[in-house]
Amino acid sequence: MADARPSFAITPNRGLGWIYLGASLHAILTRLKSQPQLYPQIDLAYSASEPVLDPIVLNLQANGLRLRFDGPDQRLRLIEIVDFSKSSFSYKSLDLVRRTSSSSETATEPVPGPSFKHLYNRLFGPSYPGEYIAPNSGGSRGTYVLSWPGLAARFAIRHKSWSEKADFVSLLSSSAASSATSLALFSGSSWPEVRASLYTKRPQLPRSLALVGKLADSVPDEVEEVVIHGGGSLEMFRRTSLPFMINLNETTPQDIVAELGPPDAIFRKPGNGLSIHAGGASSKARRPSRSPGLDPHLGDHEQSSTKSYTDESENDASNVEEAQDDETTLEAFYNYFHHGFDILVSTPQGTNSASVNSSADFVVTKVFLHGNIPGSYPFNRHRRSRWRIALDDNGQPLDLTSEMRFKEISDILKDVWHSSYRDVEEENRMQRGMVLNRGWGVGDSPESSIELLGGFEEGPPPAHQDSKGAGGEASMPDMSNTELFGFPGVLFEVLKNDIISCLTVYQHEA
């Protein structure tokens, strides 16, 4: 019977097979979920209170792997082989562990890890002395960590055999030491050197798996950070290419495609029952609003979510037929899942859509930056987009980031826009949050998720656990309900733990 275990080639400082250090959580999860026969069990552990600051751990128990990502950027920092029997591992065509001919894909007996002699003599070569970690009180075995550039192995050693003066080669070769209990891959010259900066050092490889492969030259560079300068101006900073500007109501769809490449999906915006909230592009006159409940951009935000969280194609015949008579069907959302944002292209602000005959007259009117927060309803629809608000609409300097809690951002923005309100009552009314329910599967009202983002899933949300907990499944708060808070030019979608799930940027009418 053929061995159904995945096979991985070890490349120190780079990764394990197709799993590259520096890859985004979104890219790794998407690849894993596309091959359920090889990766049948995926467990995600994270902190419910600090999901964008604390590390995220992805456990692949059926494959013997554990992947650790940083919280702010959600990039892979450490790959651990914790069970050598669940997958096949090799280095320069040499097997990491020796298997007997009787081994099979259904074998349940654990396979011992590689011996020190095998690692030292045949695979990775000589190494400097490592570190010894004494056992807890009452324990009989300590841990010895031996590292090579980009790789480290752990061995269990009888504590009574350990001595500071002992030769580690002789010690690890003796019966006092067991085979390696785990193997870790990282980026750096040694484990002691990289340990302190494991989650903060800039990764060498990109987030996108496509940018590492053979087609990297034909794939557009990835966006590292979006800086919002106010007045409808956004600056896209890229990994290696020069940054470029998006000026709302000026930048064309052709400009976007030239810089970012074709979108991953396009959603033609249909008409819906949200006009009471949305006030569409054809509205003749309207007073600029600072409240999400009155914001003319709210309906557009909802429709972006609808497409982003489904697998429908822009060529879906039923959608096209239903939208034929709608005057707004030329408007479209460009979904860039691998960049972490959506872009709405439509008629320029203040233009009567009835006078627009083709999409050639369209411009970018809104940008939606997604946080990809673990535990939230839209998790893993986009990779995480990091942003920074540098200036407000009046050109005043700010320093607000995607890692800050909304309360901190809100306090600053309330102070910035305090003088623009007529009185305290108007200020409180404009800044009151609007509840957005993302958990309902059916409905026919503007507040129902069938209107807001569509019923794309059935059954309960996937299980997850808090990385700060005791190791069991945590009792997590319901993240399906979010609140929308608006300020001039920006709209925040906020989770119950005060983390920002999505930031919408539009041009504020002064």
Automatic annotation (TrEMBL):
<feature type="region of interest" description="Disordered">
    <location>
        <begin position="262"/>
        <end position="324"/>
    </location>
</feature>
<dbReference type="InterPro" id="IPR005373">
    <property type="entry name" value="PHAF1"/>
</dbReference>
<protein>
    <submittedName>
        <fullName>Uncharacterized protein</fullName>
    </submittedName>
</protein>
<comment type="similarity">
    <text>Belongs to the PHAF1 family.</text>
</comment>
<dbReference type="InterPro" id="IPR039156">
    <property type="entry name" value="PHAF1/BROMI"/>
</dbReference>
<feature type="region of interest" description="Disordered">
    <location>
        <begin position="453"/>
        <end position="477"/>
    </location>
</feature>
<dbReference type="Pfam" id="PF03676">
    <property type="entry name" value="PHAF1"/>
</dbReference>
